[in-house]
Structure formats: C-alpha cells, structure tokens
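Researcher: I'd like a structural prediction for the single chain below. Treat it as a standalone chain; there are no partners to consider.
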Amino acid sequence: MSERNLVLLGPPGAGKGTQAERLIEDFDLPYYATGNILREAVENDTELGKQAKEFMDAGKLVPDELICAVIAERLDSGQADDGFLLDGFPRTIGQAEML
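Model: Treating it as a single chain, here is the predicted structure.
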C-alpha cells in the first residue's frame, strides 16, 4: 500500500472524531488527535504536559512550536511510515507550513 496521509479539518463538534473512527478502521492508519495527545501528556505529567498545562490553564492556545514538535515526534516515530490520520492539526498557518 502506498503512503496515505489524511487530515481532518473543522470546528469542534463537526464530526471529525466520528469520521476518524471509520477511516482508522478502513485504512488501518495511526490516529493523532492533538487534543488527546495534550490531555494525555498533562495527565501523565510529562515535560510536554507541564509546558502545555501552563497555556491551557490560562485559556490560551498551546504555541505552534510546541504542537509542531509533538506532531513531528509522532510522524517521525516510524509508526506513520505508511501514512497517518491527523485530527486537530493543523490549526494555524504556521502549523500548516510545518506539515
């Protein structure tokens, strides 16, 4: 199978998660949802979680630099060599340029 990269864009509640479930099943792709990644990092008190929590607690968006580093780490892990499914990324022009 050739590499297949899918990106789900839309506002909260638009059905991205519902569609992701179907796409994961159909294409057997690793699923990266930035919201889930950030919540997991905060819950596990990782370095990323500590940094992100400061912004999240202040009601601010986590900076592009931090989000891009998280996504790059996942995409470079080897798990996404045949493709991936992104949910919640990119959200800014800077994130789109990184992708």
